[in-house]
Specification:
mainly alpha, hpI Integrase, Chain A, 2 domains, 3-stranded antiparallel β-sheet, two-stranded antiparallel ribbon, 5 strands, 51% helix, elongated
């Protein structure tokens, strides 16, 4: 019997509690294995920092990817009872020269939609539909449950991040079948949503570009909508922070109505008007038909 080396033992313990399956699981394991091979299975601060810099310089990994892999290495260390050499809050920071990140070419977004419709799984279809329709941030998509994605009433509630405006949207008929096909009652982690992006890139054979992920779609949607609509409508639709957002009139944009058949959630007032205007000129909705 061949004795396992230290790296194999560490990788095996990490894999035993890895909840992801299929392509996502393999991506996690590939990242873990690459670090172990590069560092010689050494988890000191110097080795980890050298590996992260290697990812940036040799593989041109984005700050978001580097941060994700840093957390993956930390999880692998914890599962093997290896002392972690970093303090709380020591995770890699986004560099100042990387803050102004690019949007994604609209033709690539259309290509993604067509590829996911033809070959994607239910998760890829659901989250790409939400991203391309509402410009949802990754952190916002993680929060979605079967209560927020209300198929019965055809509304979707987004609990915004970055101090934005909490918002309930209409679900247009174009994407309804793709949301129906996914089980939102099962929690999804930010890392899993992050990996969905890589899987979609892989579907269209797109090499990953630094700083390009889910947020790039939001930037593109913002840019294209501003060509057809007033800035106030676009800001309202994309849930940007508003000075009067604490006003009750804005907080109650989506109201629950009680009728003979029970309670129904509706989008009303200026938010209903904003959704309707946006969907009429939306650059990507028609590709989901």
């Amino acid at each position: 019997m061949v004795e396992k080396n230290q790296a194999e033992i560490i990788l095996e313990k990490y894999a035993q509690r890895l909840g992801s399956k299929g392509k996502t699981r393999q991506l996690y394991l590939n990242y873990a294995k690459d670090f172990l091979e590069y560092s010689g299975a050494i988890f000191d601060r110097e080795s980890i920092e050298k590996y992260l810099e290697h990812l940036r310089r040799s593989h041109h990994r984005s700050d978001g990817t580097v941060n994700f892999i840093f957390r993956l290495i930390r999880t692998m260390a914890n599962r093997n009872n290896i002392e972690w050499p970093f303090n709380r809050g020591d995770s890699p920071q986004i560099r100042e020269d990387r803050i102004k990140a690019p949007a994604l070419d609209p033709t690539l977004i259309i290509e993604m939609i067509e590829a996911v419709k033809a070959k994607g799984d239910t998760a890829e279809k659901a989250f790409l539909a939400i991203s391309t329709t509402y410009g949802a941030r990754k952190e916002e998509m993680v929060e979605l449950t079967d209560q927020e994605v209300n198929i019965k009433d055809q509304v979707l509630h987004i609990a915004t991040k970055k101090h934005g405006r909490e918002r309930t949207h209409l679900i247009p008929g174009e994407i309804l079948p793709y949301l129906q096909g996914y089980d939102f009652s099962k929690p999804i982690t930010e890392s899993a949503v992050f990996m969905l992006w890589y899987r979609i890139e892989h579907l269209i054979g797109l090499q990953h570009t630094d700083q390009v992920g889910w947020h790039a779609i939001r930037r593109t949607l913002d840019t294209l909508l501003l060509e057809s609509l007033p800035v106030t409508t676009v800001r309202m639709f994309l849930r940007w922070k508003k000075g009067t957002s604490s006003d009750m009139a804005f907080r109650y944009s989506a109201q629950r109505f009680v009728g003979r058949e029970g309670t129904k959630t509706k989008v009303v007032g200026e938010y209903l008007e904003a959704d309707t205007k946006v969907f009429n000129v939306h650059p990507f909705l028609k590709y989901w038909r």
